[in-house]
Amino acid sequence: MHLRHLTLGDFRSYPTAEVALEPGVSTLVGLNGVGKTNLVEAVGYLASLASHRVAQDAPLVRFGAERAIVRGAVIRDARETLVELEIVPGRANRARLNRAAVRPREVLGSLRTVLFAPEDLALVKGDPSDRRRFLDDLLVSRQPRWAGVRSDYDKILKQRNALLRAASPTRGPGRRRERGPAPTPETLEVWDDHLALVGGQLLYARLRLLRDLRPLLTEAYGQVSAGVSTANATYRSSLDDDTAAEIEAGEVFSPRSCGIGSWPPWGCGAPPRSIAA
Ligand SMILES: Nc1ncnc2c1ncn2[C@@H]1O[C@H](COP(=O)(O)OP(=O)(O)OP(=O)(O)O)[C@@H](O)[C@H]1O
Questions:
Q1: Is residue 234 marked as binding?
Q2: 34 annotated as belonging to a binding site for a ligand
Q3: How many Cα atoms occupy the beta-carbon half-sphere of 217 within 13 Å?
Q4: Ligand 1: distance of its center to the CA of 13 in Å?
Q5: Is position 32 annotated in a ligand binding site?
Q6: Rounded to whole angstroms, how far apart are CA atoms 173 and 245?
Q7: Does residue 277 or residue 5 have the better pLDDT?
């Protein structure tokens, strides 16, 4: 795969930019702040619909402009694909593949990149949540179907936390909680079950992913360290080792025909309104 041409319109510091790229290594050279990382960020955005530097889209649009355009001509197996994104902060992105309008998610996979930036040091220096996010991102880019499980997990966690907050006698020090419907232990139990089930699915996927990554990591690190030291990666969870091993072996929560594993428990159709909300 080769990105032959990159076009930008009102992306970061660039009112316009046309960048032709040859196959092989390209090096961007320039003074600090001249816009090298902005170009790399644009390529990363085209590949992943996300920036490695910011969570929101607004900073990607040039100051004073309303929208940004990122367009790439990608060559793969001697065929060229034109991938185009229009970034409009606060609204859904618009996407086009070979000039035909598509849903943004449909462009994923047209361009595949591996971006390594100073921010990636958070993988070893940062919080465990950074490492979980990295694994989940990788999971989704390898097998997009995990995106659904991941977003279900986030939704359930949010709903369960809201329920726990509502159940606590005060919200914040000394403040009385606002009155809402009192949650019953049964309701909490239902959310516990959902959380355990989807959390188990996600853990299964992360453990499997790490199992696949481990030999690659050890080999790649061996090359840069010239064999002086070795690197390994293990997933440390609060579960006991036997349970984690059972999950990794797929004895529980393994993928089956409908969706993934026995998730979702309501079958393959739309989720009940309480979960979809
Ligand atoms: N939304 C924006 N609108 C206009 N300019 C922006 C926007 N976001 C960033 N910039 C400008 O982009 C420049 C930073 O570009 P970038 O981070 O690509 O620099 P760089 O060449 O990678 O620098 P360094 O070598 O220091 O890493 C800054 O001048 C900043 O003001």
A1: no
A2: yes
A3: 11
A4: 6
A5: yes
A6: 41
A7: 5
| Residue among 37, 34, 39 at smallest CA distance from 19 | 39
Q: Please, where are the H alpha helices in 49-102? A: none
Pocket of ligand 1 (CB under 6 A): 12-13, 30, 32-38, 59, 61-63
Q: Is the pTM of this model over 0.90?
A: no
Q: Are strands 68-76 and 2-11 parallel, antiparallel or unpaired?
A: antiparallel
Look at residue 260 and give its three-state secondary structure. Answer: strand
Angle at 221 between CA 219 and CA 222, to 5 degrees: 60
Q: What is the pLDDT of residue 251?
A: 65
Mean pLDDT, residues 50-68: 95
Asked if residue 267 has pLDDT above 70, the reply is: no
Euclidean distance between CA atoms 111 and 76, whole angstroms: 9
Q: What is the pLDDT of residue 264?
A: 47
The predicted-structure confidence for 149-205, as pLDDT tens digits, reads as follows 888 899 999 999 988 888 776 555 555 455 556 667 778 888 888 888 888 888 888
Kindly state the DSSP code that residue 62 receives in the 8-state scheme: P
Domains, the chain, ranges and CATH?
A: 2-115 (3.40.50.300), 120-276 (no CATH)
Q: State the chain's mean pLDDT as an integer.
A: 84
Tell how strand 94-97 and strand 2-11 pair up.
unpaired
| Higher-pLDDT residue of 126, 243 | 126
Mutate to test the pocket of ligand 1, among 34, 39, 41, 67 (most ligand atoms within 8 A of CB): 34
CA angle 215, 151, 153 (to 5 degrees): 80
Residue with tokens 């907050």: 165
98 is annotated as contributing to ligand binding: no
Q: Max alpha carbon distance in the chain (Å)?
A: 67
Rounded to whole angstroms, the Cα distance separating 38 from 53 reads 10
Distance, CA 42 to ligand 1 centroid (Å)? 12
